[in-house]
Amino acid sequence: xxxxxxxxxxxxxxxxxxVMTGLASDGGLFIxxxxxxLPSDFLTKWKDYSFAQLSLEILSLFIDETxxxxxxLKKIIDASYSTFTNKDIVPSVQIDKESDxxxxxxxxGPTFAFKDVALQFLGNLFEFFLKRRNSQRKAESDPVHRxxxxxxxxxxxxxxxxxxxxxxxxxxxxxxxxxxxVSPIQKAQMTTVLDDNIHNVAVEGTFDNCQDIVKALFGRxxxxxxxxxxxxxxxxxxxxxxxxxYYFHCYFTIVRAGRVDPxxxxxxxxxxxxxxxxxxxxxxxxxxxxxxxxxxxxNNIVDRFFKxxxxxxxxxxxxxxxxxxxxxLISSNFERFCWYIAYECEATGPxxxxxxxxxxxxxxxxxxxLKSTGKFEVSEASLIKARKEFSSGTTSDDQTIxxxxxxxxxxxxxxxxxxxxxxxxxxxxxxxxxxRDEISNELGYxxxxxxxxxxxxxxxxxxxxxxxxxxDFPEFDINPLLPQQFVGILQKEQRCEYLPNDTDAIAxxxxxxxxx
Length: 516
Ligand SMILES: *Cc1c(COP(=O)(O)O)cnc(C)c1O
What we know:
single chain, six-stranded mixed beta sheet, threonine synthase activity, amino-acid biosynthesis
C-alpha cells in the first residue's frame, strides 16, 4: 500500500514515509492509494476478536508485510494497548435500554483521553522505525537517525503524546501549550513527566499562537531537516488508522450482546475531524453503519458544512465552551474527507488517473480559497452524497451542562444506568436524544442503536462537571471518582519552560535541548 497527498502533487510514499513526515511536501495530507478489501467473511470471522486482534487485521491491510512484518506489527500493537486499564481496551456499555443508547468508552488509556488509542501506537511505531533505521547504519560515524517532535496542544493531545513518547530512544519531544489556558490537571499531566526526552513549553499566548509557532518551525526548511521534525497532531495518518479499529470493535461488541445485524448510528464528538474520519474509513472498508453523526459544540464549522455545503470560518473566532478539546476554527482532517468528495463527485475525467489528478487540483483550489476568502463550497451532488453517510448537529453550552446532569441524576433501574458523562461526550449524547426524529426520517426506520463515542474521562474536566451538578447535588465530590493517577498530581514535581510568543525563542530552546 502506498500513500498520496490530498493536494495531488506528491505520491508514491510508503507507510513509513507517511508516518515519519506527517505532512506531504505539497502541504497536503496523506491518504492511502486505495481502500483495501476486507475478507468476505469478516462479519463472522472477526466477531470474537479482541481489540488487539482486530487492530492487527485492520492495520495490516494498510501496512505492507514488507514494511512491517506481521509479527513485528503484532508486537507494536500488543505493547501499545498493554498500557490500557480496561481488559476490553475500548468497552461499549449500554446506558439506556429504552432509547438503546450505548457509550463507546475510549478513555481507558494512560491519560484518560481517546487520543491515547492512537498516540500509544504512534509512539511505538516511531520507536520501531528509528531502531530499524539505526540498525542499518554501516559505520559508527554514520549519523544516528532521530526524531524531534514539536507539537502544540490545547490540553489533551500534549498529555497523550507525552505518554506515548516518554523514554523513547532517539526521540525528543517539545510540546507547546498556552500558558494559563489549559486546566491544572491537564498541565500537571504533561509537566510531571520528568523523562529527559520530554520538554514542556508554556507559551505566553493562545493555542493559535502555539500552533502558528509549530507551523513556522516546520516551514523553516533547514531547521526541519537538521532536527528531523516529526508531527504528532491528528494529521498524522497513523492516528486515523489506529482509530478505525474501535468502530469495528464496538459493532462486534453489540453483536456479541445478542443483536443480530445491528443498525448503528455513531455520534462522534468532533473537533479536528480525526475521530469521525476514522469512522468514515470504517464505512469505506465495509463496516455496516447506518449513520455517522458529526457532533460539534458551538464551534460548528463542520455541522454548518453538512447543512449547507459551505465550509466557512465563523466570524467570531474560536468560542470558549465547556468542551475545550473541540474548540477549533477549522478542522484539519476535513481535507481528507473532502478529497473523497472531490474524487467521487466533482472530478469528471474519463479515467481513474484523470479523476485522481483532478481531485488533487480541486482540493488545492478549495484550500487556497479557504485561506484567501475564509470559505469554499461543494456542489449539490457532493452534498447529497455526503449526507447519505453523515448527519450533523450542534450542542449548546447549556445543553452540554444539562445533559451531564440528566444522566447523573438517573436512578439505576433495569433499563437505565446512572452515568457521569464528560462534557465532550455530553455533546454527542445530547444529539442522540434531540436528533431522534430527524435521523429516523432520514433512515426510514427508528429501531436503530445510538452509540456515542466517549472521548474523555469526566474527571479531566472537573469544572464543567461541577457546574452541571453543584446545584442539584451540593455534596457532589469528584475525588472518589478520580483515577489513581490523578490523586495528588497537582502537588507533584513539575518541569516546564516559560517562553514568549516568539518563534525564534522556541527554536533556540529546541536547539539547546534536542538530543544529538
Ligand atoms: C481531541 C478531542 C476531541 C476531538 O477529536 P477530533 O479527532 O479532533 O475530532 C473530542 N474530545 C476530546 C476529549 C478530545 O481530546
